[in-house]
Amino acid sequence: MQAIRDADAAATAALQNFLADLEETGALAAVDGFPGILDLSLVLRQLLADCLANNAPMDALDLSVLAGWPETLLQYLGHPDSAEHKDQLLEIARYPAWGAALGEDDAALLRAQLDIQAGAAEPRRSAELEWEEEAAPPAAAAVATTGAGDGDNVPADLRDLVAIMVAELSGIRQSLVGVVQQLSHPDRDPDACERALHELARSLQFYAEAVVSIEFHGLAGTIQSASENLAQAIAAKEPGAQLAVCALLQEWSEAVLHYLRAPLQPDGATSLLGLMSDSRWPAPIGRAEAHALLARFGAAPAMTPETGRPKTRATATAGDVSIALPKDVDQDLLEALLQELPAQTEALTVALQRLAGGGDSDDLLLAKRMAHTLKGAGNTVGIRGIATLTHHLEDILLTLHKQHTMPPAPVTQTLMSAADCLSAMSESLLGRGEPPADALLVLQDILNMAGLLEAGGIERWSAGQSDTQPAPAAATAEPAVAPESEADAVPMLRIPAHLMDQLLRMSAETQIMYGQLQNFIQQTSLQVKEVRGHFEQLRGLGGKMEELADVKDLSQTGNAARDDGYDSLEMDQYSELHSYSRRIAEITVDANEANKDIAGGLAKLKEVIATQARLNNETQSLMLKTRMLPANTHLQRWQRCVRQAARLTGKQVSLGVLGGDTLIDGTILNGLLDPLMHLLRNAVDHGIESAAVRSDCGKPAAGTIELEFSRVGSYIHVDCRDDGRGLNLEAIRAQAVSKGMLAADQDISDEELQQFVLQPDFSTKQEVSQVSGRGIGMDAVYSSIVEQSGTLSLKSAAGKGCTVQIRLPQDMLSIFGLLVRAGPRLVVLASRGIAQVVHHELYQVRGEGGELQFQMQETQLQAVALERLLGLDLERRQGGRHPRTAIIFNTEGGPRAVLVERILASQLFAVKGLGDFIPKLPGLVGATLLGDGTVAPVLDVTDLLRLPIQVAPPPESGNTPRKSVTAPTALVVDDSLSARRSLAQFMHDVGYQVRQARDGSEALEIIHARCPDILLSDLEMPRMNGLELAGHVRADPRTARLPIILITSRATPRHQQEAMSAGVDAYLTKPFSEERLLAEIQRLLAAATT
């Protein structure tokens, strides 16, 4: 039963592959002038897909009928006028097992379509028609194929040896690329170049010995000649000559590959010897030596040519890897390709990675299917580089599948290089990078490998692999990742990015309006509470009026004679005063109840607005998610970066990603791409040790690098850690001392020492490498993170590895912060870096000026006042008069304390940018609109703490008075509420802190508590009028010089004279001129300061 189930599963998988190829096969035939084949292929594909969806059973006979489709199709293409071949194709399409639904009318229409062709032609034996035998379901031995026999010029007993020679030559070619890059670099290191050239010479010598061991003496002679020329170039120590020889060696490697593909053909050896005779070599071989070597080529082991399938093209050209778009490209097709290309290349890479890790046939089929899809997409749009590379990649995968063989390590390495190249091509088309520089080399390696596989060289190779590494059982194999079906696909809606930005801007505006509404409700609630107090006072006054009315009635009872004949004890008698007092009491009660109703309505309104704010936050969060991407979006690029760095350094390294499903804003994630790639290269090049060193240290041969993503509040945390050697603190100290950044005997902690690697132009490595030494140091990574308002810190343990911790704000539409007062200004301090808020009673501050020390129990930190941090003048008396709150910030240099005058609120603030015309200022995140309409800057204090503190210039002497940064205070006194508020608003608008009093007595209480800078009073007021107030002020020595302005409706000279006699400085009549009042205020204040 298990065997039957396995056979059914295999048949189903093969049938799915057949369906995937049917449509493209028809399309190829349509291009050649056979549109009927396209229609028939589409119909057959739909019929078979319906069978699969309905789980319709198929026996061996059904599958054998379907297996005849490729051969019947080829016969039709060869003889399109043959009615017999047309009928055979229709019979297969109408076979009862799947074609019962195809009616007579549909069959007749398809038959008519088959009659249409552009003219008889030779059958098109494409890769799809000639070599895709797996398209037909392999039902036991009943499946017929149309493939030709495998063969090559290399006999079977030498195929594995030739394959080894090609693999070794690929390593030399890689070394050549690195040497050429080093020699071509404008800032090349001569010592590093010389070491690389000597290493290349040793590789050539080892290669020559290996070739001699298998008796390819002619080839060994050319290798020896190449080595001698390289030795002369090294001895000359001339970079230009060395570069020229290396370029010739690259041509030589191409000629060797050409020879190894067909050792029996004389043109390969002749071309190779002709190249070695070129006069461009420092020591070209002579004619006699060339004839002798040609004879040694003929003395190679006896080989008999074999016939087989057409050979893969031998040499790749620059046009084969071009990703230039055709001039007449279809924009709709291009847009569709660019949308699907990243996912398809990622699926291909994942499948090949599974094969490299011991995958199964499902992974091989998935990789082949994705290569096939990419090839079709590349051909459709006209991108030759993608189409060519995936075409030959598919041929290799197809050959492996036909031979039921898993690829050995050298093949998987070549396949992964091709996948990396495809990913780089994809990113270049998307505008995320340059075209891959090694594309031509990668394609040539693929062609070389395809040639070997066509020669059957994989057979013994695979046999060796199967002896030592048996393929995993299907039950334990990792399941293949299948593409998402149309039924499971989520409908997508594409909208312009600028429209989403506008929606987010409107959402932020709504948040600002919520803040203003909240502030309005808060102020109204305070006013309601104040009115409630007034009602209580009015109720008390009403009660007193009733008492007075009752007393008056009692006093008049004995004196007044009643007209109605009733005695006062028999019936109460009320006056009009009593009636009015009762009415005032009733109205007061009614008004108080109405006030309670208003307060209740405000409370409900506050709840509704809070609900609206919550909905707005949810809407904003959902809109932000449209810009968010999973953290592992660039996983393939990071893995490719690690693979390339490991290949160049000869190390074994694996990359793991934790928290890959964490959603991050696309802009932030793209900004992280380059810094993380540099950190990964650094980890491979500087951190991970070689396999031998790791073994000596008791570590696994393969190093491990981990990227971990997480979201904490509104911040994104990224950790990049490795298990390598860690930071070399001694080398860092020595470099810091040599640069004058540190004294030789200076005591410094390990944490502070690690921060030196973030300084510009700081490196402990003496030589520039092609992996991480590209002129971009950790300072560039650090600067990139800081530009995104992030932080970067290092943690290292000797012999255990290094961890780089990055912290970035998730979005800047809204930010949680503290609203604080800095003198007369209000500023918002972003919560980034805040570790603790300490009340003034819990700590002490020692020191003067800019050298302050915060001390709380055993903790001692550097401290600075916020005003000094902003470069403002700080009044000395202010600190003593108003104790300050300390906010502890975590910075790269350790925690620091910032002293603020007062924290007014802690909430979420909507942040708006300052526009394109304002340059980027350190520490300034943006601005926010407060509820009362005030614009407050939003500051990043951790960024400000990195800057040198700007101290205001000190006074010339200690006796010089310091100018206060606080706004002047005005006291407005008037019994009329409307007049008092109007005047107070005017004074507030011109920059005064305003206090208010209802009469002279209340004004004196305020003056005694804190003397204002100017007094503005009415003349006629209850309890104490303006003249009496002026007299009291002038009689007190503490307030005798206080400027007084009297504002009244009395305009007679008598009133004005009495006011001046009482000590009033200015007398204005209502309605007054605001310009004149302002002029009088300036005059009096100027006189008071002289």
Describe this structure in words.
The chain has 36 helices and 23 strands. It is elongated. The chain is of the alpha/beta class. Strand 21, helix 34 and strand 22 form a beta-alpha-beta unit. Helix 11 packs parallel to helix 13, helix 15 packs antiparallel against helix 16 and helix 15 packs antiparallel against helix 18. The chain folds into 7 domains: 134 residues, no CATH class; 143 residues; 151 residues, HPT domain (Four Helix Bundle (Hemerythrin (Met), subunit A), Up-down Bundle), CATH 1.20.120.160; 112 residues; 155 residues, Histidine kinase-like ATPase, C-terminal domain (Heat Shock Protein 90, 2-Layer Sandwich); 131 residues, no CATH class; 120 residues, Response regulator (Rossmann fold), CATH 3.40.50.2300. The strands form 5 sheets. It has a 6-stranded mixed β-sheet with strand order 10-14-15-13-12-11. Helices cover 53% and strands 13% of the residues. The N terminus is likely disordered.
Q: Helicity, in percent?
A: 40-55%
The secondary-structure class comes to alpha/beta
CATH superfamily label of the largest domain: Histidine kinase-like ATPase, C-terminal domain
N- to C-terminal distance = 111 Å
The CATH level-2 architecture of the largest domain is identified as 2-Layer Sandwich
Q: Largest sheet, if any?
A: 6 strands, mixed
User: How many strand elements?
Assistant: 23
Shape: elongated
Tally of DSSP helical segments? 36
Low-confidence stretches: 1-5, 118-153, 300-311, 460-489, 876-881, 949-965
Quickly count the domains.
7
Strand order of the largest sheet: 10-14-15-13-12-11
CATH level 3 topology of the largest domain: Heat Shock Protein 90
CATH class of the largest domain: Alpha Beta
Cα gyration radius (Å): 45 Å
